[in-house]
User: Fold this.
Amino acid sequence: MRAVSAGHTLMQRWRGAWRRWSLWTALVLLVLAVLATMVWLAGRYEASQVQEQLERDAADAVSDIRVALTRNLQSLQALPGQQAWEGDASELLRNRRELLRIELRDADLRLLGHVQSPYRPVAWNSPLHDGSPPDRAIACANARRLGEPAYSGSYFQPHGDGLGAEHMELCVPLGARFLLASYALQDLLGNLVAHNLTRSQEASLTETDGTRLAVLGATSQGLRRFSAQHLLDLPGSTLVLRMESWHAAPHLFPNVLSALVSAMSIALVSVVAVLVRDNRRRLRAERDLAEALAFRKAMEDSLVTGLRARDLQGRITYVNPAFCEMVGFNAQELMGHSLSAPYWPPERVQEYRQGQAIRFAGHTPPREGFESEFMRKDGTRFAVLIIEAPLINAQGQHTGWMSAFLDSASSGAWRNSRARRRSACRPARGWRRWARWRRCWATN
Assistant:
């Protein structure tokens, strides 16, 4: 039976410990999950900021290219109405480095005159360039049909030095003639896209199918790649401007916000650890207190001496079972009484009040106690021996009085019985003395 009770107690303690530790473990895991989520969200936020900035840069680059091409078109349209257009065309080529060559052709696209950029000293392969590439013919046919300028698709134009570049041409209809302006796509990026956009990013012009035609900017550096692309939709041709950016591997703390949140979470985890430690100490103290209270309760239940505690106003704050059995009242009937107690004889209430007032005025009763008379609940009277001492708390302050009560009749009978036992222990001689002392110790 004892083994079953011990096993049940052990199981209850194990369940209580598991419940407490499971709650603390869940709290710690929740804090760690919040920390990891905040760091992850901060990294995602930083990546979204980089992507949004890249999208804005690509849109700005496309806008700059469109504005520059429109300005060039207006300048080209003003050339044929002037005398000596080649001089004005040369000045335009010096001011607009993205323009490589300006040509005047007839309705059959035969060359009538041309001006070349001074920034391209290499000689072009004249037989190849003086012909009519299909892209150029298509652009002029579109311009004649629509009655407005049109761009050709990109094509590779070899140079006389064995090199070449991707070109795009603008065909401007002038009645029976055409004015053609050649653009190098590489120079288009280098001169029309702001330099601050390509300092740490890569800009490229591609076909709609992804074929890269020209590249400008920084090379790839880092593990994380961000990209954004915008259409450069021109009359007769469509190109794609692509911006790419590389970043290093993400840090553990991407920015100040995530570092601050992480520090606060670590501080919270530290506080939780301190709380766990404090809770363990508190539980240990509560367990020790419960054991002390159980020990005190066992002692109180085994006492035959009545105990009563009163505060400085005379209110009863504690009685033990022996005192309740002595006077015949239960604890609820006795607690809180101050001016008169239900166990005081009615005719002696005034006398006991005066004595109580004297004691509360600071007069300490004799250490050996004093006798008094109490009345049980059934009305019977009995004499008691009262021993009182002041109650001092842990701070050394006087908080009340503790009284011990002995039923005079019971204490007298106990004293007479002990006296008789001691009288049996009279001195003797020889072996009789030894036997008498053994009986004396056995009975006392």
